[in-house]
Amino acid sequence: MKKLKAGLKERIDNCYLFEGDDYELFCRGYSMILRASGLAIPEINLAIFDDENYSMKAVIDACQVMPMGTEYRVVLLKNIEKFNENDKKMLANYLKLPISTTILIIFDFYNKLSTLKNSCTFVDCNRFDRATLSSVVVNDFAKKNKKISAEALECLIDYCNGYLSRIVCEIDKLVYYDFENSLITKKMIEELVAKDNEVVVFQLTEAIATRKADRALQILEAVKKEMGIFGLIINHFRRLFFISISDLEDAQLASLLNVKEYAISKQKAQVKNFSKMQLKKIYALLEEVDYSIKSGAMLQENALYYLVLSILYI
After folding, report:
1. pTM for this predicted structure
2. Residues 6+ apart with CB under 8 A from 213
3. Using 50, 70 and 90 to split pLDDT, how confident is the model at 198?
4. Which sign, positive or negative, has the C-alpha torsion 122, 127, 131, 132?
5. Which of 77, 128, 162, 180 could connect to 132 by a Cys-Cys bridge, CB 3.0–4.6 Å?
């Protein structure tokens, strides 16, 4: 994001490709480009395409329209899930000779257009590192005349799993909770902010890893009906297995497993609680349970308890 901000001071490019896991960064980067472009009369000079109105021909046609009353026209291609090969070829051909007065912005949350990175200005919208995120959050609170204590800031980032998208949704709630108190405390975070499912899964697996059965079952009871929780648990233990058998550096593992580097370092600490043989058995158990659910032999809620209790006693 800093690179985008610095680049816009020098020049505005004709195509920006946004990819990453933190959608708030897509929105902030988009706002930066709009401000830098000096866009006027958006009713005429801004065209937005999503799954409901998308066709690549319509996008290319919109890019070839000249702006009216302003220097640039902006075309936003927003998180299209289904690109066919012909669409990609049409877009690649357009990018060989783009219209100089058009700024094409592509939100590629589903990573469908990664092959075009070299043809666009790439904007990395993956979660910020902790130091950068802390600075951004403190600044966002300051804009609302609030301060946040160091321990509250750490707690908020942990509960939201480092996603600025989650954090900004919680900021207004925290700001308006107590008008008279200018300081956001850890107690307020604990009372008002729900933990991200990935954070809950980490706590669950930590309880399993340290053989705290009561704690593991308590967490499981609270989240058993959450959408996607089973998949998160499976993915977490699969990563533990791959980490245990790999000699790669954290950064290489993070890239291979498509997670943040700090997530790898946290999971490496958990790996120490299991032997390689235990993780191999758990990996086989994951495949067994996953098949049982997909074949209808086991209900997901029952599978969750079976999986957790089995791992506790492997």
Report:
1. 0.72
2. 207, 312
3. confident
4. positive
5. 128
The partner residues of 296 in beta bridges, in order of sequence, read none
- Helix, strand, coil share of the chain (percent; to 5): 60, 10, 30
Q: pLDDT class for 249, splitting at 50, 70, 90?
A: confident
Do residues 69 and 101 make contact, with C-beta atoms less than 8 angstroms apart? no
Distances (CA, A) of 163 to 62, 93, 229, 256: 33, 35, 18, 20
Q: Over 80: is that where the pLDDT of 226 sits?
A: no
CA–chain centroid gap for 4, Å, is: 19
CB 311 within 8 A of CB 237: yes
Question: What would the two tokens of residue 248 be?
Answer: 């790669």
- Res. 270: pLDDT tops 90: no
User: Which residue's entry shows tokens 């959608």?
Assistant: 23
Sign for the CA dihedral angle at 22, 125, 127, 7 comes to negative
